[in-house]
Each structure stands twice: as structure tokens, then as C-alpha cells.
Amino acid sequence: MLKREIGHSGIFVNAIGLGCMGLSEFYGPAVETRDGVALLHAAIDAGVNHFDTAQLYGMGANERLLGEAFHDRRDKVVIATKFGPVRDRQTGAFLDVDGSEANMRAAIEESLQFLKTDHVDLYYLHRVDLKTPIEETVGAMAKLVDEGKVRALGLSEASADTLRRANKVHPIAALQSEYSIFSRDIEDGSLKAVDEIGASLVAYSPLGRGLLTGSYTPDHTPQKGDFRSAATQPRFETEAFRANLELVDEVKAVAAAHNAKPAQIALAWVLGRGDNVLTIPGTTKLANLESNLAGADIGLTTSERDRLNALADRVKGARYPESRSSNINA
After folding, report:
1. Element of type H or E holding 305
2. For position 148, which CATH number holds?
3. Is residue 67 situated within a structural domain?
4. N or C of the chain: less Cβ packing under 10 Å?
5. Quick check: is 60 in a domain?
6. Residue 220 maps to a domain
7. Which residues contact 130 (CB under 8 A, 6 or more apart)?
8. Chain segment 22-43, per-residue pLDDT in tens
């Protein structure tokens, strides 16, 4: 498989990892623990070694699942987790983003406990705390590296300026941001800063939250617990959704030329951006995971990339609603 280094951290992973969020929350009902563990073990057998989770996902449930799966095979996996957003432990409601050292200390200890490990390979600030200078947060995170609890640091959905300021305090190995054929807004800002500081981009939602898989029909209705609805995802609003599905036909046409699936083309497009790009598509199904991994073997022609590049400007709807945009590219 295609291997790439996370920044200059010395940590090498397969370019296509696994985003684990959907195993516990946001994309429908959480999987049963035994099924989740089985999938994670199968992922290792298939060659995946980069697994992404967060304190936020299931309020610890996702980290616990990874702990169950990896505690006896820790040497086979690179674990990334995140802190920052705070939720009400009773209701699950989102309360704030807290990048303080006190919150970070509590978060890392809980994550280590849930993950059943003594260190995290890549530790992210999940969203930028607008109340706390990034220098203060990253300075505190750097202490975890000195203490051996964390190997490398990352930021998620951070702007170019924030990345540069953070990197002056401690090397930032990765920026995690949404990036796909449909979402290219980071290219003129934070992605250039990623290149400049020698970091990696870890692209989440490379399949456009499922739109780029080609599996949706215009009459699709999200199941209970799936956050892909008009209220939380503008691109899934009825009219926008139908218009965006028409754009997927272009991806399907490129896929047909390669005897491939649209999702594989979408992943090949992301990885073709540069050698410092990794991606973490999520799935709860082994067949989809195995299919996604084949995307690393597809090479797109210049004309195919140009055809796909033209789609982003035609996508209807923002990545997030206005109510959730303040910490995006912050």
C-alpha cells in the first residue's frame, strides 16, 4: 500500500486510514462493540494502520471501542485523537470549545484510559478555541510530547495564520480539515500553509459525507441519528442535494473509464493533491473499507483531474450551517 509520513514526525502510515467517528455516533446508530472490534481488526488485516478518533465521538464511546480493539496489538496501529469541544455529559449538547491546559490535561488522561494505552501518536486540537491564544494551547500540548504521552501534534480546521503561529511554538505535524472534490476551500489558505511548514493534510470527509460514493438517490431520507440532514448539512437540503447528485454523474463517468467505483475516484483525487496528503474515509462496512483502499492504486490523468476540479465551484450549499462555522478555518 501507499505509505506516507505524517509531517516530519517519523510516523509513517498507509495513505488511506480509517475515520472511526461513524462507528459510535452521527451517521446512525452506534455499532455493537463486537462488530466494531471485528471491523477494526479486519482493517488492520487489510493494511490500515492509521485510525482517527476523538473525545467528542460518542463522548468517549469511540475511544473505548478502539481501546477494546487495539489494547493487545498497539504496535500495529497509529492512533490519532482530539480534544477541545465540550459536551454536556447528560444530554450530549455541545457547550463550548476549551483549549485551556486544564481541559487538555483532563482530556488526555481520559483518552489514554479509554484507549488503554500510555501514549497517543497524533494529538489534535479538534477546533480552535477563539478565547485562548493558539500559542498557549500548543505550548501546553507540547508538554505532553515532552512527557511521552503524545508523539506528534496537529490542529483541525485551523486557518493558515493559526497554523503558522502554532508551528512557531512546536512543530505541527498535521492539519485535519475537510477536503474532497466537493470541498476545496482550504486550497488558497491553510493548505498552502501546510506545505510551507512541512506538515501533512489529513483529509476528512473525502467522500463528501457520502455524496461522492454515488450510492444516493434523490429520494434519500437520512435514518434516525444521521446528522446529514438539511438542518445540519446545507448540502443535503432538498434542492441542493438534488443538484449535487447531478454533479456526481461526472465522478461516475470518470470511474467508469477506470472500471472503478466513484468513491475510489474521489480518494484518488484527494491523494493526488500531493505526497503530504493522507485521508481517513469512514465506514462501518468491511466491503466498503476494502473498496476504499483500492483508491490508492488509481492514477488520474490531467484531463480527468481538470474535469473533477471543475465541480467544486458548482456545489450547492456550505460545508456547515452558519451556526457552526465560527470554528471552521479559524
Report:
1. helix 302-309
2. 3.20.20.100
3. yes
4. N
5. yes
6. no
7. 97, 326, 327, 330
8. 999 888 889 999 999 999 999 9
Residues of the chain by 3-state class (helix, strand, coil), percent to 5: 45, 20, 40
Range of the domain at 287: 3-208+264-298
Residue 163 in grid coordinates: 497554523
Closest CA to 80 of 278, 295, 327: 278
The number of distinct structural domains making up the chain is 1
Closest CA to 98 of 134, 120, 129: 129
124 is catalytic: no
Q: Nearest-CA neighbor of 289 among 178, 213, 184, 226?
A: 213
Helix (H) or strand (E) holding 175: strand 172-178
Distances (CA, A) of 275 to 46, 278, 296: 22, 8, 12
Please name the helix (run of DSSP H) or strand (run of DSSP E) that holds residue 154, with its range, or none. Answer: strand 150-156
Location of C-alpha cell 437520512:
222
Q: At 327, is the secondary structure helix, strand, or coil?
A: coil
Q: Assess if residue 180 is contained within a domain.
A: yes
Give 87-96 pLDDT, tens digit per residue.
898 888 889 9
Q: Look at residue 89 and give its three-state secondary structure.
A: coil
* Cα atoms found within 13 Å of the Cα of residue 25, Cβ hemisphere only: 13
User: Confidence class of residue 233 from pLDDT cuts 50, 70 and 90?
Assistant: confident
**Which of 162, 29, 145, 38 is closest to 99 using CA atoms?**
162
User: 95 versus 18: which is more confidently predicted?
Assistant: 18
